[in-house]
Amino acid sequence: MLNLKFSICNLFFYLFIFFSFLFFSLSLLFLFYDLVYFIEWSILSSCSIDVLMTFLFDWMSLIFMSFVMFISSLVIFYSKEYMNSEKNLNRFILLVVMFVMSMMFLIISPNLISILLGWDGLGLVSYCLVIYFQNVKSYNAGMLTALSNRIGDVALLIAIAWMLNYGSWNFVFYLDFMKIDYEMSIIMLMVILAAMTKSAQIPFSSWLPAAMAAPTPVSALVHSSTLVTAGVYLLIRFNILFMVEVKFFSFLLLIGGLTMFMAGFCANFEFDLKKIIALSTLSQLGLMMSILSMGFPKLAFFHLLTHALFKALLFMCAGVIIHNMKNSQDIRDMGLLIYYMPLTVSCLNLANLALCGMPFLAGFYSKDLILEIVMISDMNLFSFFLYFISTGLTVCYSFRLVYYSLMGDFNLMSLNLLNDSGFIMLKSMMGLMFMAVIGGSMLNWLIFSSFYCICLPFYLKNLILFVCFMGGFLGLLLNFYKFYFSNKSLSMMFLTNFSSFMWFMPLLSTVAIINYPLKYGMNMVKYFDLGWLEYFGSQNLKIIFMKNYSIYLQTLQNNNLKIFMLIFLVWLLLILLFLLF
Fold first, then answer.
1. With CB atoms counted within 10 Å of each terminal CB, which end of the chain scores lower, N or C?
2. pTM of the model
């Protein structure tokens, strides 16, 4: 049985690695010759009705598929050791493969119908993966994830209905010359709503940290290149409409900036290791959405790819640490891990530095370029401050994580067996670590055909570095003084609760939605089912009417002679009246 488990893991690992290199090679070819292949496959043709499946292959879809396959192969290889004690490992691997196939389907579809199939496939399989460890917490997280994503699914269905105004559901045919059309504006609004739910923008952010109930390999896959990036990728395909509808651009810029700020702020008050990394994903998604709304789809796609590399590495390192910490995810239990697990913690800190935008790592090339584009763009002061404060907060919670894992005291049990002995997991992490170092520079040369030369004044050019250093300093300062302030100050206690609850968004998504309908239903039961409706109908109907009439009928059946004589006289009277008139 164990050999069968490993054989399935190895099969999909080698298969995905092969397709990853194949798609990457094809993407270089398509990029060099500027090729786009649009393939239509007639599945069924009967009575002048054609059922067609369409595929769009260009450099963007091919390079994205290559990255998804590469990360998925390493996640499956990583799962071989991480889920070693799982009896149903084959089922888990097949669920992961179904998840990846749904994402593949979404990436190469230029058609809203086939996009919906991949979109719903992601939603369904993600629910199965979130509730994989079967307990109440996982069930609640799965329901929150599934129902939040259903809002986007319905929006996509409405967009499909509005596409009936055109001749086909292949939206790529109509984006350019129908972009000023009223129907296309409605479609764009629905697509933005769908992308906001899938990419967990405000006010749909609460499901993303809740989805941490899934196994860590799933989290590495979901938060890097699959589920949460589906919304961003869909908007990249629809980016032509952003240039026309200014109101959509402004709305998405505000939502992306607020999501980025909220996630960075709340991560500084969180103690669950996986939730901190999940909130960092949310922050980067807000960054992608906001730069996309400014009309830079290539830049958003560039950051999407670089972010996928170091975020998958972060989750893999977190999984190894959680395993060694006897399944404890609280960062307050960690400390001095560099002495016990040097290789794992080195990978964790490298991924952290890439997330912060440390020069010459993967995240630097995309984040630095995005922030410099923001500085030369025509943007209001509020959005400008949201960008730079959120960048500072990113460095802040990253250094906070470094402080708790490296500098603090080890607070778990004194008898521990912390080590770097997970050889299979380490090999997976090494593959991603290599890409997290060179991936940014490689993609920078590939994606942008011309060299970006942004000329800024000295103080603006160094503003990004200044914000990063100040964020790191603030992160360390916050850790030294946080407990003192939280115990002494009522406002600090409120701020801590407000931030750890993600601005009370999980309450708004769960309790607030169901509370009033439940109260209204209770009142309806009280006043209708147990009130006047019960009095005039149901049980009371039997007491008032049925019982009284049964008493009268019983009296008639008592064989009383006077009653018979009275009925006889009434009967004679009726006959006489009938004869006379």
1. C
2. 0.85
